[in-house]
Fold:
Amino acid sequence: MQEQIIYLWLYLIKGMNYYLYNQFLKSFNSIQNIFNLSKTEFLFKEILTYKNLHISAELLNEFTNPELKIKSEKLFFKLQQLHFDIIPINSNRYPKVLLNNLNPPLCIIHTGNGKNINSKNLKFSIFYNSNFSSNGKTVYNIFSKYLLEQCDVVNIYNNFDNINVLDNIKNMNNTVQIFDFNIIRKSNINNYFDYFEKGYFNSNDIILTDNRSKIASIEMMCNFVDYYIVPESGLNKYIFIISELIAENSKEILVVPANIYNKTSYFSNYLIKQGCDILLSVNDIKYYIDNYNKDNGIN
Structure:
């Protein structure tokens, strides 16, 4: 079995993480052994007990599910046909920036020239919400345009269906685009080929994440970015998750202050109260970029 297929299988196991991966690797010596010994549930359970490794019944079921192994192999060859590559965490092509985080993905499903995922430039992402106030929309448009012109940007999308989004992506440079959808569904992955042929992704790095894990794309984005900008946010479950993951990975959130009486800016002002830095204009972003470039010898 090819190593890339096994890493893809590990990636698709719900509940698998970097800590468990290292524990298993230490006990089983190789991922090939993990793959082979997990083919029989009873045997695998006995081995785990002997090695004093404890996992939940749900995770044990994932490891020993033969259908997931078959799907992983089929998906691997389909992804190859669509110009995607599986980059395992032990590869020298794996983005170094991801290794600085608490729970880096065990592999990335990637296409593109690799320039942006391995770039040492400062990376930003910006929060978007369809419920922005008119002021929030204005701030978002101004700041996102500036970011695309001045630095590397990490974006998240949940499908390939919005042609306006894809037209924007086609004209972007210096971006990492993260698409969050069920990569096992044939209807999703088949749609990708048409967009690739039309040149939508030529100047970007594209990463697929599997939305069966609900927040996979958010975790991936938080792994990549140095700063996350909140132009405006009310009570939104995703911004809560993002703020926690950003903090866990020792990254920073930058917030645009807003009307304290407006529900759409409640969480923005809460983040400021918690100590997040404030952005009053795009010139404030330039301050972070200039300092980073100076500290890292980037012209």
Notes: The mean pLDDT is 83. The longest helix spans residues 134-150. The radius of gyration is 21 Å.
